[in-house]
Amino acid sequence: MGLHQVHETSVGLRDFQFQRLNELLLFASRFNKFYKEKLDGIPLPIKDFQDLKRLPFTTKKELAKDQMDFPPFGRNHTYPVENYIRYHQTSGTTGRPLKVLDTRKSWDWWIQCWVEVLKSAGVTRADRCYLAFSFGPFIGFWAAYEGIQRLGALAIPGGSMSSEERLNSMIQNSATVLLCTPSYALHLAEVAEKIGVDIQNSSIQKIITAGEPGGSIPSVRKQIENLFGAKLYDHVGMTEMGAYGYSCREQNGLHVNEKEFIVEIIDPETLEHVKPGEKGELVLTNLGRYGYPMIRYRTGDIVIYQENPCPCGNPYQFLPGGLVGRADDMVVIRGVNIYPTSIEAIIREFPEIKEFRIIYYTEHEMDQMKVQIEGPENVVESLARLLRVRLGLRIEVERVEDGSLTRFEMKARRIIDKRKNKSKVT
Ligand SMILES: [Zn+2]
Fold first, then answer.
1. Topology of domain 330-418, per CATH?
2. Angle value at C-alpha 318, between 315 and 321, nearest 5 degrees
3. How far apart are CA 41 and CA 27, in angstroms?
4. Centroid of ligand 1 to alpha carbon of 7 (angstroms)
5. Ligand 1 centroid to residue 249 C-alpha, Å
6. Alpha-carbon dihedral of residues 56, 212, 289, 73, nearest 10 degrees?
7. Ligand 1 centre from 303 Cα, in Å?
8. What is the mean pLDDT of the segment spanning 147-168?
9. Are 78 and 293 in contact (CB under 8 A)?
């Protein structure tokens, strides 16, 4: 498959990474105005993992400020703007969207990273891949669409269609792989049931999810797999960074494509590398996107550092459980650290719950939360009990009318924050 070629050579993965990193650093410190400033005076080359600490972190805040100071695209675009062929922007949930351009070569790199995702999911040229996604300015499945073609499989776009039309198209074209967000997969299954389409026995064999952490949450994954009678694979990527991670046949977490990315996991307070078994913030460096390089980027995603390799045989860094939270999503409710991902993991253990949302609010100067669900009355108490057991926190569960909560195709926004002091929101 070629996936692990690098590791098997005598050079070794680390040496390969650092050779590429030093090439990138040399290049960026000369030709990229954003990094020229940041890397000024830092002794190069970087020889080992500890040396990485010499390099400054890059943050989204910094990129946003740079883009404001140097409109419209900012200085991290290494080449003159006429060299760029792709435009994307972040969803801008916490401020202005960030504009990110790619040159032909950088975009080619993106596509190749997606080919690795597809290979890890066992997709072959015999597959017909259905992309249930509206192709807009978000990076979403754009690179997937082209990666599918590069692999030699058939790419069927499902943009600007209703869920019903998408289901019909999937069935009529005998699609074997479905690509969408985990929230949307659940929604599609709901619509299928409503209109009497039997997706459980349909041609769909695999689902590749992206855009939300759901695909790596066991309860979400199981629910989607049961509804579709298919196996689910997860993928993670970021507009600023690239398509960096994917799940494997073991399905219990994500691998980072270390051929193209250097992984660090840091304590967000001390900024030091965490120890095995500890949680920390994922920091990534991309090695092949010269049109928009990213060095020691603080992703804001919380992951667990595991030293042992995954039993699947892929030697790349394994992140058990995938992205377990967002640094800026964490809230403290009555002294307990809560990530929405952990709430969702519990809610999805109840397949009867069709949709939900989380509401944070302030009462008697205390931050509180409640969960609203669409589902049968009898599930309310069971869910409240399980939340209390798992989180050690009494959380109110409220039933709302069926169909009253929003369904999502893109990144789901299931949190309503009515707290007086939104301390952890950046
Ligand atoms: Zn694996």
1. GMP Synthetase; Chain A, domain 3 (3.30.300)
2. 155
3. 15
4. 15
5. 6
6. -80
7. 16
8. 96
9. yes
Query: What distance in angstroms lies between residue 327's CA and the mean position of ligand 1's atoms?
Result: 25
The domain spans of the chain are 1-327, 330-418
Predicted confidence (pLDDT) at residue 341 exceeds the cutoff of 90: no
Distance CA 240, CA 219 (A): 29
Q: Picking from 20-24, 238-242, 413-417, which range would have the lowest pLDDT averaged per residue?
A: 413-417
Measured distance between the N- and C-terminal CA atoms of the chain, rounded to whole angstroms: 42
The highest-level CATH class for domain 1-327 is: alpha beta
Distance (Å) from CA 419 to ligand 1 centroid: 40
Structure tokens at 260: 């193209």
pLDDT at 424 over 80: no
pLDDT at 50: 92
Tokens of 290: 């010269």
Give the integer Cα–Cα distance in Å for 266 and 260: 19
What is the gyration radius of the CA atoms in the chain, in angstroms? 22
How many A from CA of 3 to the centre of ligand 1?
12
User: In Å, how far are 119, 196, 208, 246, 250 from 122, measured between CA atoms?
Assistant: 5, 30, 11, 12, 12
CA-closest candidate to residue 375, choices 336, 395, 405? 405
How far apart (Å, rounded) are the C-alpha atoms in residues 46 and 132?
Answer: 43
Same topology for domains 1-327 and 330-418, yes or no?
A: no
Structure token digits, residue 45:
């080359």
- Tell whether the torsion through CA atoms of 179, 180, 185 and 191 is positive or negative: negative
- Give distance in angstroms: CA of 248 to centre of ligand 1: 5
Task: Using the mean position of ligand 1's atoms as its centre, give its distance from the Cα of residue 93 in Å.
Answer: 31
Per the CB < 8 A criterion, the answer to whether 223 and 186 are in contact is: yes
